[in-house]
Every structure is written in structure tokens, then in C-alpha cells.
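Attaching the record inline, Q. Sequence:
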Amino acid sequence: MKSSLPEETELRNALGRDALVVVTGANGGIGLALCKALHGAGIGLIMACRSRERGEAAAGEVRRAGGKGGIWVEEVDVARAESIETFFERLKRSGLRPTHLVNNAGTMAPHLAFTPEGIEANLATNCYGALRMGDHMAELMAPGGVVVNTVSLTCRFGHFPPRAAQDGSRTYRGTYRRLQAYADSKLLLFVETACRVEAYRRRGIALHAADPGVVSTGMLRMGCWFDPLTDLLFRPFVRTPRQGAQAALRALCHPQKSGLLFRAGSACPFPEYIRKLAQKAEGKAGKTS
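Structure, as predicted:
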């Protein structure tokens, strides 16, 4: 299914005048580009950032770029369950009712690290945090809402289930490789997203995946000697954050049908290998319940 890039009018018409979109990881890269596009279309924003200071600075940049939608900055660390719970309690008390969510926040941890809850850092941010945000948001949204989870082309190289999840403790088995750990976390997110499509559909919420492709953000820096060569030879040929944001923006415009993967210029059902892994995961869950 081919699709053109969404213009401001298309965004306004698709999301509606009263739309309120939560974007995680909103203070930089793709998240900031998403916020500028949505604000430019006159759509309300909740910019969910790990640092309020950086979030407020990003909100100022979004306002200067032009637009009429309201902007609220919220501090939330999606890697921590407690932070997400606190965020949603504040959201309920505020009276704000989000209509859309883009789970954009992500990390590629340079070294093996764990959250205070004992979850490996990539899994905590890229997978479990996104799933927790989506599940909470689906409870608040009225029918017609949309949740978008950001996946990655690296899914093809991921392990399912991830070694960190198999181990279930702080003693990560084997040599830690950041790109592999990132791929593992994104694959698990994609599979768990596929597992949730029907449950969200019953609530009237569309659940999609968006693959921004290879985007020129700080995540491309590996902290290695070849980083300058990467910047010189590789970075000019990858997508800009604005280009990377297009997949999620188009996903937000599709509340009618659920379970689609959006890439640059196209949308399709989730890949067969993802659906098979989801069936496998659901089968195991059924046996243990």
C-alpha cells in the first residue's frame, strides 16, 4: 500500500481538531521532528522526556518552528515502571485525555547496564517501557485512538527471546554487543506488539509499528575509533530525523485498520516471521496460564 508523506492538512483531517498526541523521547532526533510536524499542523502535544530541562528546551524549539497546538512537557523515564506509573497518575489528575501515542524513545546502551528493577537497559527502554506506555494509554483513549511503536530493520538480526530476557538476572550471559542487544529488544517489541493488536482492536484502538529506517541521530555513534569515518562517509546517505519521522506520522493517520507496519512510502501487514513468533509466544503464554 503506497502512501504519500502526510501534509499539515492531512494530519489535521486524520487526527481531528481535538487530537492530543503523546510523543516519548520528544526532546531530540525523530521525536523532536515528530513534534514539529504535529505542532505545525495545529495538533496538541504532550512531550514526554526523561529530562524536564531538555524537554522544555525542545518545546521552545517546537514553538519557534511555528504552529498553534498546545504543548505540555512531562518528565518520564520509560525505562522505569515507577516513572511511567507516576506519569499516568499525573495525566489522570490533569484532565488531559490523549488520543494518540508514539512510542519513540529508544536507546542503544554502549555498555551492559540494568535498571533499578534489574532489567537490561535496552529491553527496559525499547521494549518493556514502550509496551507499558501503550497499555496504559489504551485504557485512557477513546475509540479511534492510535498507538504507534517504533521498531527497527535490525529486527531481522535479533534473538527471540532475547538472551537478557532468558537469563532474567543481572548476570548477562556471553559477551555484550550493543547492536545485538538493541536488535533483540526491537524484535521483542515487534513480537509483543503483534500479540496485542487484537486486544487493542477490541478497545477500538489501532496499534501499528513504524520503521524509520537508518536515521542520522546520535544513536549512530558507537563510541569507537571509526566514528569520524562513519560521520564522513555514511551519515550523508542516511535519512534526516524529519524523513525518519514520516513513518510514524503516516501511522497516526490510520485509525481504521490495525496491525500495519509503516516504512518510508509504504505500509503493509506485519511480516510473516513476526506473526509466527507472536503465535509461538501466545501459545507458550496459554500453556503457562
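The CA atoms of residues 86 and 258 lie 29 Å apart. DSSP finds ten helices and eight strands in the chain.

More tomorrow.
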